[in-house]
Amino acid sequence: MRRLLAVVSHPDDETFGCGGALALNAKQGGLSRVLCLTSDPPERGDELRAACKALRIGKPVIMGLEKISADDAVIRRVSDHIASFRPDVVITHLPTDYHRDHRATYEVVKEAVEWAAHTTAYEEPWLVGRLLLMEVNTLISSPHVLLDISDVWALKEAALESHPTQLAKFKDGYYQRFTKAKAELRGVQGGCSYAEAFIEEPLQRNGPFYETKASKSL
Fold first, then answer.
1. Which of 69, 23, 51 is nearest to 163 (CA)?
2. What is the CATH number of the domain that holds 187?
3. How many domains does the chain fold into?
4. Per residue in 92-146, pLDDT tens?
5. Containing structural domain, residue 173
6. Is the residue at 216 inside a domain?
7. Strand-strand pairing, 89-92 and 130-134
8. CB-based burial, 20-58: b 16+ in 10 Å, e otherwise
9. Strand-pair partners of 91
């Protein structure tokens, strides 16, 4: 059973960026989870829980930070979660995203993924298999991965409607129209109806503080 963890800045990022991936993994028998760093105002946490229910995935974990910064305490909390949940794939934000919280979350996750694998930090460290970076409102120019989410598109649309406080910011249905147009664009590129795009971030595989010190093959 594949475990997929999305680490996001705010409620709604999980749906806009990788809701299809989360729902598809769950539909295929995997375990999908969302770790959200903030929730302001608090009712957005209820929206996140409703969105996860719409995606048919487990309840989210909300850290409730007032500010996202790549300090040691925040990195440790995220790495603790990674070491405990033991995901095969982690999804988070782009380092080039327009939103400073999204950029800060990338920095936190990149450090946390490494520390979760350190034998000096954990008795049972965990080496994440893949780190994927998603597009929310900032588009990826040349995606490494196009994931066909056609089979779960209706779930992503339902999850989108679970975030009324964000949808209300634009009376013209901007978020709904943008999300659909983005998925259709990626679908055209991927030869399907709807898709999500990701960048794959290279991860360190070996090191003095990792359980595996050297690879036996290329």
1. 51
2. 3.40.50.10320
3. 1
4. 999 999 999 999 999 999 999 999 999 999 999 999 999 999 999 999 999 999 9
5. 3-201
6. no
7. parallel
8. bbbbbbbeeebbbbbbbbbbeeeebbebbbbbbebbebe
9. 6, 132
d(CA 145, CA 19): 15
Q: Are strands 130-134 and 195-201 parallel, antiparallel or unpaired?
A: antiparallel
Provide CB contacts within 8 A for 124, sequence distance 6+: 83
Identify whether 208 is part of a domain.
no
Which residue in the block uniquely carries the two structure tokens 């960026």? 17
Would residue 11 count as lying in a domain?
yes
Place of tokens 């770790």: 35
Q: Where are the beta strands (DSSP E) in 26-129?
A: 31-36, 61-62, 89-92
Tokens of 178: 């943008």
The structure tokens listed for 97 are 């995203």
Record the tokens describing residue 160, joined without a space.
């989108």
Q: Is residue 83 part of a domain?
A: yes
Q: Which DSSP symbol is given to 8?
A: E
Q: How many CB atoms lie within 10 A of CB 187?
A: 19
What pLDDT shows up at residue 195?
98
